[in-house]
Each structure stands twice: as C-alpha cells, then as structure tokens.
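User: Some background: our group keeps a shared notebook of sequences we're curious about, and every so often someone picks one and asks for a predicted structure to add to the entry. Today it's my turn. The entry only has the sequence so far, pasted here. Could you supply the structure so I can complete it?
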Amino acid sequence: MRVSRIQAAENRQAVINVASRLFREHGFDGIGLKDLMEGAGLTQGAFYKQFASKEDLAVEASRRALESASRRWSDAAAENPSDPLGEVIAFYLSADHCEEKMDGCPIVALGSDAARQGPDVKAAFEAGIKAHLEVLGHFIADTPGEESGRKAMAILSTMVGAVMLSRVVNDPELAKAVLDAATRQVRETFAA
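Assistant: Of course. Here's the predicted structure to add to the notebook entry:
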C-alpha cells in the first residue's frame, strides 16, 4: 500500500522526533536503524524512503533536539522575566534536568559523539550552540559587546560541563555539589 505524501511527511517527522530522543539516550552509534524505526512505529525498510543515510537522520535529529533545547531555555526565561538567567540556571542545573536522558540537553548527551561525526552533524551542533549563546547574550545584554560574548561562552561552558560531570558520577552528593558549584560560578560570572 502506497503512503500519501502527507503521511510520508508525518512519518519523517515522527522518525526525527524519536531519533532526537533515542540518540540522546544511546548516542549516535548506540542504536541501530531497526530500533529507531520501531520507536517511530515504522519498519526498517521505510527508512531509506525518508533519509539518505543514518548520518542524514543524525543531522535532522540533532537540529530538532537543539531547537527543542533552545525553546526550553526561552520557556524557562519566560517564567521569570525579571531574572531570566536565574530561571534558566535553576532549570538547567537541576537534578531533574540531569536525569532527563532522552529530553535533556543534546550538547551534554551527544557533544562528544558529535565531535566524531561528519561536518553536517557538527554544523547542526554549531548552530545550536550559537543559538544558546544568543539566548544567554540577551540575558546579559547590558555588558559591553565582546565582554557579553565572552561571558555567554563562559556561562554555557560551565553549565554544560557541570551537567555532564553530574551525570557521570555515582555519588548523588557529589553530583549535587558539582551543580551547586556551577550555579555559584555562573552567577558570579554574570555579576562580574
């Protein structure tokens, strides 16, 4: 039975959505096409009707995950317009966010994997990182030009590193201490 163009487009979006979550949980190489397609409710045979390669899917899934992450930052900031950075810090450096393997930060979940991928996956991550830096830049807009960009980079680097470190340790107290230290450091960087 042939699938309509509308259904084919919906299927493609479903695969991208599922892959953006499953790649964050398992890594790009930690899950096969069969499991990705099953997760979307489709057969493996349908994959090549939708995508040229697994890397093609990795690019699309990375974009989707990074766009979702940027939206989450904007949504968090909207919760407290008088302190948007504080709200993003509270959300991002929380134990709950650190436990979100499938929906958490794609930079943390896939950053080291992305570094080993082709230029198209790296380009998707670069665009996502720039979007995060832009959001942070809006929060610290009163800082003069180059200083604002440097602060945004320091804040993003600190937060991403802290979430990554908190995820790789077994000791919950150490994980919390890392997140708390990063929270203090980010606030000090912003205030400086």
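Suggested note for the entry: The longest helix spans residues 54-79. The chain has a mean pLDDT of 92.
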